[in-house]
Amino acid sequence: MAKSAVQKIQTILGVDSDGVWGPKSQTALNKEIGRTADANPLLAKIQKLLNVDADGRWGPVSQGALLDQFRPHTEAGGAQGFRAEASSFADPKDVRDFQRCKAQGKTDQQCFKVGDNGIGQFGKLTAQDHTPMVAIYKDDMIARWGSVMGAAHRIVNVTVNGRTIQASVEDRLGVAGRIDLNPAAAKQLGLTPPFLESDCVWSWA
C-alpha cells in the first residue's frame, strides 16, 4: 500500500510513520522549523511533498498545506482534523489557583502557569458553563488565519470519546498537540474538570 503524504513527512522527520499527525509529529516539525533561520533542506523535502514552494523556510503557506492533509470527511460530516489531548481550563479550581497566586503578589504570567483568570485573550468570560469555548495552540491559529487575532471567535468542532460539539476560540495556549476546553464545553462533552483526555479530535468548522 502506498504511503500517504503524512506518513512520508513523518518518515522524513524520523518519527513513527503511522499516518496520524499528533503531538510527537508536530513537535518534531517544530524542532526543524526552529533549527535554523536559513533554508532547511529537510523542510524543503516536506514542502515538495506538499506541492508548495520548496524554499526550506516554513511559513503559513507551508503549514496550511500540511493542515489540508488532515481534512478527509468523517460520518459526522466535518473534517477529521487534528488529534490532540483535551484538557480543562477556566474551571473553578483553575480560577481559585490563579487568584491565590495573585494574592501572593506574583505577576499574571507567573500565575497563568498554575491557573487561569477566567478571561480569554479576546476578552470573553471563559469561566462559565453555558457557552462552549476553547483555547487553541497559537501556531494552529496562525497557520489557518494568518495571525492569533485572526482566529478570535472562530468556530471549531471538538470530538471527545465519540461525542462532538462546536465551540468558539476565545483563548490561546502555548502547548502543541493540545486543546483546552472551558467548563461549558466540558459539560456538553460529559467531562468533569480537571481532566486530560487523549481521545480527542478537533477541526476548524
Q: Can you describe this structure?
A:
The protein has two domains: 5-70, no CATH class; 82-204, RlpA-like domain (Barwin-like endoglucanases). The protein contains eight helices and six strands. β3 (155-160) and β4 (163-173) form a beta hairpin. The two termini are 31 Å apart. Strands 1-5-2-4-3-6 form a six-stranded mixed β-barrel. α1 packs antiparallel against α3 (41-49) and α4 (60-67) packs across α7 (138-145). The protein is an alpha/beta fold.
- The percentage helix is 25-40%
Q: Specify the biggest β-sheet.
A: 6 strands, mixed, barrel
Determine the CATH topology of the largest domain: Barwin-like endoglucanases
Q: Which strand order spans the largest sheet, edge to edge or round the barrel? A: 1-5-2-4-3-6
Summarize the helix and strand pattern as letters: HHHHEHHEHEEEHE
Mean pLDDT: 86
Strand proportion, as a percent range, falls in: 15-25%
Throw out a few tags for this protein:
205 residues, alpha/beta, Barwin-like endoglucanases, six-stranded mixed barrel, 8 helices
Please outline the helices and strands.
Blueprint: H1 5-13, H2 23-33, H3 41-49, H4 60-67, E1 82-88, H5 92-103, H6 108-112, E2 133-137, H7 138-145, E3 155-160, E4 163-173, E5 178-181, H8 183-188, E6 196-204
Parallel strand pairs: 1-5, 2-4
Antiparallel strand pairs: 1-6, 2-5, 3-4, 3-6
Give a summary of the structure in a few sentences:
This protein has 205 residues and is of the alpha/beta class. The protein has eight helices and six strands.
